Amino acid sequence: FADHTWWKEATIYQIYPASFLSTGSGSTPGWGDIHGITSKLDYLKDLGVDIVWLSPIYKSPQVDMGYDISDYKDIDPTYGTLKDVDDLISGLRERGMKLMMDLVVNHTSDQHAWFLDSRSSKSAEKRDWYIWQPPRYDDAGNRQPPNNWAQILGEANSAWTWDEETQEYFLALFTPEQPDLNWRNPAVREAVHDVLRFWLERGASGFRMDVINLISKVVGYPDAPIKDPKDPYQPGHALYANGPELHKYLREINDKVLSKYDTITVGEMPFVNDSDEILRVVDAERKELNMIFIFELVDIDNVPGSFRLTRHSWHVSDLRKIVSSWQKTMHDRNGWNSLFVENHDNPRSVSRYCDDSDEYRELGAKLLSLMQTTLSGTLFVYQGEELGMHNVPLSWDPEEYKDIETINYWKKMNKLHAGDQKQLDDAKLTIQRKARDHARTPVQWTDGPNAGFCKEDVKPWMRVNDDYKTVNAAAQRSFDKSGQLSVWQFWKRGLENRRKHKEVFVYGSFELLDDKHPDVFSYKKSSKSEAFVVALNFSGSDVEWTIPERAKVDNWVTSNYDSWGPKQTTSGKVRLRPWEGLLGTAA
Ligand code: TEU
Question: What does the pLDDT look like over 218-245, one tens digit per residue?
């Protein structure tokens, strides 16, 4: 069993500041602010949160909601001031909680002073802080980008942006307003180290590192293989993810900065599922990162190798395979898992993995909670997940969506399929299933105006999901019917249980119980002194599941239904109702 540390046992709550709570203390009406976060610390403490991770609050033109930073050492006035962050940190400390910052250093904003200098001339002091390349010319003599890589958030456009002034292209993988830093330049790396120190000295306890596996690109910038011949630009994931010097750069960060503090780090690593490579990053001995976000589970419904705004059918056996293989790999090979099914880049989990209809929404949200609170790894809860918030309905006009990725996708589809209603309806469905916006609607605090997110006479920056009268924090916290729990209360109890039995749930070993069942994901978690069995029905039907001989259940102790009635224990068949999850003590 793995070494014990505070960051392994922690429950981390991700806050997307724009949509959390608007108290009017920031400069932009209808946007969440830092003071709003500080005012909800008791709510988070009560839920069982140990660490708060803030999506970016730094100065930013907000082209990509703060993932385009123009000053790493200052706060965007929309959210407040450095003083507000200091207050937040003291509020967290008073409650024994910690702060995790979002470190976005693969790229900056094009308005960052570093880039303004870099683009000013070919001989500028910081020219080499970004990635500049001369054009290529095609047979007809037309100027072309240095290679065929597609932009990640722009879908159809090149990842290279032409700079008229200096007659070269710069690399900007996400949007043209997010130029990629040149990590080969040691001065860039030192400047990044300095940013880390600044926040650690101020009281942050660690970082979530945005697309940290993209900082080292393959040398020579070769063309990506053709995935879709209709597009001039192709996904270049394999060429810019986990490049040759990634490990060197990560170890350098550890050596020069992190090793001098007691920190937590989690790296975001899209496009890579190779376990050897992942282990090289999280192996405790190698001193790179504590853990990473592996995307396999949230990519379950993407067309493989393609962009996120695609749809692909999946089966519970896929989910079972992904979860169990990472549980085992990390346990056996001295790595560490992060557990998450939501973040600000994904649709709501209950809409994706379960059924978000009125009938089954609460059950599905609780099912996913039961799964996550019983697995090994550091647990990440995304704002609103504890309320079972779900995707916005199909009836919303695409104009209500605010994310640059969605906007670009919708533009592209309208260009490609003008007049073809069937194709456009299909694109709309993709948006309703997959857009990042679903996670970004304002948190539903009450059944009052604007769901209590902002004052009545202010328009929230993004429309509130229609169901806030029934789905909101106030109703769920005060919910009181004997024997029944709201989604919020179920989460709270699940986190309590996880803490109480951390040897089993956080650190224990994992055994998949049945890899054939068409609907059920079942497993056994064991420590030296106790064991639990978990059976999760990922379907809307009644199913039968057989308790295997090697995992005899003593007692069922939790169900996501209000009552679990007389269930078969010891051995034999158990009936699971639609989306039912059971937790039992095992021999
Ligand atoms: O996301 C990186 C990333 O690769 C994806 O999650 C991305 O959003 C998805 O592939 C798009 O389809 C991070 C941030 O979490 C995201 O919000 C930023 O937009 C992105 O980096 C750029 O900083």
Answer: 989 999 999 888 888 998 988 999 999 9
**Best of 210, 269, 344, 438 for a ligand 1 pocket test (most atoms within 8 Å of beta carbon):** 210
* 544 and 572 Cβ atoms separated by less than 8 Å: no
Q: Which atom of ligand 1 is nearest to the CA of 173?
A: 22
What angle, rounded to 10 degrees, do the helices at 186-202 and 246-256 form? Answer: 40
Give the pTM: 0.97
Decide if the complex's ipTM is over 0.90.
Answer: yes
Structural domains of the chain in order of their starting residue, each with its CATH number: 7-108+185-478 (3.20.20.80), 113-171 (3.90.400.10), 509-586 (2.60.40.1180)
Task: Tell me how long the chain is.
Answer: 587
CA–CA separation, 195 and 180 (whole Å): 17
Residue that is written with structure tokens 């802080």 in the block: 129
**Which amino acids bring their CB within 6 angstroms of ligand 1?**
64, 67, 104, 152, 174, 210-211, 268, 270, 307-308, 344-345, 405
Q: How many CA atoms lie within 13 A of 440 on its CB side?
A: 22
Atom index in ligand 1 nearest the CA of residue 174 equals 22
Output the residue whose Cα is nearest ligand 1's atom 6: 345
Residue 268: active-site member: yes
439, two tokens: 């996670």
Judged by DSSP in three states, 278 sits in helix
Alpha carbon distance 507, 429 (integer Å): 40
- Side by side, the strands of the sheet bearing 160-163 are 132-133, 168-171, 160-163
User: Which residues of the chain carry a pLDDT beneath 50?
Assistant: none
Ligand 1 centre to CA of 138 (Å) is 31
Per-residue confidence (pLDDT) for residue 441, from 0 to 100: 98
Spatial distance between the Cα atoms of 28 and 461, rounded to a whole number of angstroms: 9
Are 521 and 513 spatial neighbours (Cβ–Cβ below 8 Å)?
A: no
